[in-house]
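RECORD TYPE: inverse folding
INPUT: structure tokens
STRUCTURE:
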């Protein structure tokens, strides 16, 4: 029964494009760590040979069925038991790589992993045509691409999914991985190709066609390409806004010495990352702490307290750097101590008003546990007047955590605005490679086409559209220059993926 099933699989299986490439293997789970389970993956034409040799089985593995098998290293006549492991076989082309694949779910001890990897390595023998070697980074995904199991945007999505640190990054990577970007790019390509086809008709039948017909076709192609150009420009704009999510939103904590900047950083990160002390000037330099705030990657920077009267050279340097951090960050949280007069020094007021663009500041009135309701109201009013109501004001206490949740909500709201995302709409993260081809090839080709005025040079118009279409082909890997991009795309991967 099982053999019959196996036979039917064989009947319909095709030969993968990479059939003559070496069979590769790798530890796909984290190396160098003890774990309950470690997965070794093997892909290529010699998977079954490896299966027979390791398990001593006489019959072929049933595709897609897990079975518990003893694994042996056959040294001479003696069989050495290495592990008892779950074995899973995928037959080409229905596997991640499109080749035969074998997965060994081993016990995760280092010695077990080492012995099984060693046993697989020993099965390689080039003289007998058994080309078996350890995989290079990204080689499994590269095989998947070469066998048409995924396009380059999906492959890049796999790498992004593995690298994703926050919820928003995960959502965006999943979008690429599931082929949504590919579908969009393919749609754009068909529109351009359809434009080329119509222009080609003008070239082929030009002399027989009426001038008005020719103009009507040109106008229609032009209109379509103008709409497409707009759509791609919007897409690129969204990519640029979303890239803030990939690198992390830069947030700087600024304020007078002792206002509670380090305490606020600790409250937001929920640990004791920064040194808190009641000696003013404790933070001498800017400290970057990467954190996850409500699903957004944030690089929060604690800076030296800003005051004008310091003569300490180290502190002066720290203040300079704090100001530089404030100017280059995406958002500043200005921390104010309500028990101090003045609430905001003139130096700090000038700096915030002149050096930081308006919409990028949140004011946090800290230490609310030290003032009563009326006092806090007066402080908030004064701060409002100082900054002409330009910035949102939040009241917090780092001692009893009051208002922190509210502040985090406000931060999340600002991050949504900065990245052009919301919890309902996914961010758009694509590789630098894709963004570059979109702007340098696709948008360039469309612009050149659109700047061409009339019927004079239809051949040139076709060339420009072909340039744009080729660009999209380069992005998905469906077109020329694939070899040249393979290295760029797959070098980002880890071994075993
Ligand atoms: N009562 C009260 N004290 C606080 C609060 N936040 C911070 N403090 C105290 O204020 C003092 C200064 O806090 P830090 O967080 O070190 O202030 P900073 O702004 O980082 O100080 P510098 O590094 O010197 O610029 C410490 O003694 C904190 O315990 C608060 O909300 N309430």
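DESIGNED SEQUENCE:
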């Amino acid at each position: 029964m099982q053999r019959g099933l196996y036979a039917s699989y064989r009947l319909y299986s095709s030969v993968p494009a990479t059939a003559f490439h070496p069979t590769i293997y790798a530890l796909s789970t984290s190396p160098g760590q003890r774990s309950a389970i470690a997965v070794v993956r093997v892909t290529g034409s010699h998977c079954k040979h490896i299966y027979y040799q390791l398990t001593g089985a006489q019959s072929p593995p049933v595709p897609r069925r897990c079975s518990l098998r003893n694994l042996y290293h056959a040294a001479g006549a003696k069989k050495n038991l290495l592990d008892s492991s779950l074995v899973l076989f995928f037959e080409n082309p229905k596997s991640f790589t499109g080749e035969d694949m074998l997965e060994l779910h081993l016990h995760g001890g280092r010695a077990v992993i080492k012995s099984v990897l060693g046993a697989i390595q020993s099965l390689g023998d080039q003289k007998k045509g058994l080309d078996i070697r350890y995989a290079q980074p990204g080689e499994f995904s590269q095989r998947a691409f070469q066998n048409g199991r995924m396009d380059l945007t999906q492959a890049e999505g796999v790498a992004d999914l593995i690298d994703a640190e926050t919820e928003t990054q995960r959502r965006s990577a999943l979008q690429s991985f599931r082929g949504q970007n590919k579908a969009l790019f393919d749609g754009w390509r068909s529109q351009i190709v359809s434009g080329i086809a119509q222009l080609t008709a003008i070239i082929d039948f030009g002399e027989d066609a009426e001038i008005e017909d020719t103009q009507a076709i040109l106008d229609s192609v032009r209109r379509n390409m103008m709409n497409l150009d707009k759509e791609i420009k919007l897409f690129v704009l969204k990519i640029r806004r979303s890239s803030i999510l990939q690198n992390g939103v830069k947030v700087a904590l600024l304020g007078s010495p002792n206002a509670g900047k380090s305490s606020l950083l600790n409250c937001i990160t929920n640990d004791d990352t920064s040194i808190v002390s009641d000696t003013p000037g404790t933070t001498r330099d800017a400290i970057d702490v990467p954190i996850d705030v409500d699903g957004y990657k944030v690089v929060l920077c604690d800076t030296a307290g800003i005051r004008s009267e310091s003569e300490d050279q180290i502190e002066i340097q720290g203040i300079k750097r704090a100001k530089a951090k404030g100017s280059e960050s995406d958002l500043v949280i200005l921390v104010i101590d309500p028990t101090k007069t003045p609430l905001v020094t003139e130096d700090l007021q000038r700096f915030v008003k002149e050096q930081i663009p308006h919409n990028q500041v949140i004011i946090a009135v800290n230490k609310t546990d030290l003032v009563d309701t009326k006092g806090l109201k007066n402080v908030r009013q004064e701060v409002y007047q100082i900054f002409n109501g330009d910035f949102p004001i939040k009241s917090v206490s780092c001692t009893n955590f009051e208002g922190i949740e509210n502040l985090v909500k406000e931060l999340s709201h600002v991050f949504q605005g900065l990245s052009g995302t919301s919890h309902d709409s996914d961010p758009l993260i694509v590789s630098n490679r894709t963004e570059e081809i979109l702007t340098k090839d696709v948008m360039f080709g469309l612009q050149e086409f659109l700047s061409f005025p009339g019927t004079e040079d239809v051949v040139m118009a076709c060339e420009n559209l072909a340039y744009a279409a080729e660009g999209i082909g380069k992005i998905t890997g469906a077109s020329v220059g694939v070899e040249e991009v393979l290295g760029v795309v797959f070098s980002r991967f880890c071994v075993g993926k």
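NOTES: The first strand starts at residue 23 and ends at 27.
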